[in-house]
Amino acid sequence: MILTDYYRFEKLPNQRSRLRIDCTASTHSYQPLEILRNKTGDLFLYIGDNTHTKAGKKRKADLALSRTEHISSIYNPDLDLPYWYGDMNGTTDAFLFVHLNTEFINGGIQAGAVIELFVARGQRSNRSQLYNILSDGELDEEMNVLRKQVTKTVTESQKP
Asked: What is the DSSP letter of 59?
């Protein structure tokens, strides 16, 4: 398998921060994200305009994923497809994103947005090629395998 880890983030309703997305399900297996959990075990990130990457020889990313520091630049090669790609800052790992309802309104991501993050460890140099095979549907089976490996969701943990 190319894809190794899975994290589902959602823009929860009534969230004060316009850019915060909360992890609602994951495989709990990717240490660089796991160390970002707070004392209560919650994981949240911020997604918004890219203010990290400076224009120059490199292509400027469309969005950025952050917490207290920059985590990943996010590239959106095709506005008609629900896919993005990026990489984990300071690692050799690639990120592939599948997103739904991710419009940015008044400087923030709309409530109900869902962003699935798939990690391909050691594949940073192949991230644009991985984006292409994701777009062609060649990773659908791997994504479904990882979705089924979710250890606990926020919704399940809140049930009585």
From this structure: P
